[in-house]
Amino acid sequence: MDNNRIGKYIVKRRKELHLTQLELGNKLFVTDKAVSKWERGLSLPDITLLDKLAKELDTDIYSILQIENRQNIDIEKILQIEKHKIKKQLRKRITIIISPIIIITCIILFKLIPFGYDVMHIRYNHNTDKLINLGVPKFSFYMQNNEDNYAYKSLRGKSILKSEVKAYLNTLEPISCNNTTYFYDNTADITIIDYSITSNILYNNINYSIRNGNYCDTLQIKEYNNKLGLLGTLRTLYNEDTNLIIYFLPNLKTEEHNEWTASLEIYYQGRILEHSIGTFEIINDELIYYRTQIKERDQNIDIPNISNFIIRKQKLILKDNYLKEYEKEIILK
Questions:
Q1: If we measure between CA atoms, which residue out of 126, 318, 311 comes closest to residue 231?
Q2: What is the pTM of this model?
């Protein structure tokens, strides 16, 4: 049974009778859209309408259904088969139409819905050899590593990837130096100094740039070494022709980042004038020593809580000389 032939016959008879689709539909108590579907071969009239349709078109059911051999023909069975065929074709068309929509919707949701990140354990072997942790957005792939740089690819949206990377960075300790904030992982002892999400045609790149240890400490040690020479070197009095002996040892304290320890011992003619410990920092060209504990002292001198040393050619010159009674100028080499 050819739906298109049936449709053409219905439209031919309707026009021969000078009926519109709406007029024919009203006679059959169906809409003009239903008549239009019959005529375009998109559906068949219901079996209960065939007698009425044949009467209104002044024809018979066999002519409507384009059946030439009329003997032993089960019209009802034929109609059921054709309706099933039409429904199957309709489902196929709907599937063809809906499938791209579903696929596009899934892609959009995949790009826009946050899935979080995984903490990946990665071997870091640039100037060291240890396992480190990196927060990588879920469904990322193809890791690339070049010394201090790690990169991943992802098909997900750029803004979502940014939010997931920031969520990971928020679990780390923010440290600031040089007017920049970095992210320190004290468990793995690494610092993420930079990160970025860059777009490609098909995917986005997630990039991490890391440094071993506390990066701000490293920068500060470098700066302090440039000004003082080698940190951890004992500083002694520049003038050797004196009875005053001074040992000043600026050192590193690893328990707290950006905090450096120091000790100061001063002797005069064999007796101790001061033995103190504390912390120090360098601001511009000045070293500031903060005493946290005075272990021993001479009661005849007034030891300040803070001493300032001017840095000049890697020598330390005591700014407020509380030892002027023993030496007019204190210069430590």
A1: 311
A2: 0.62
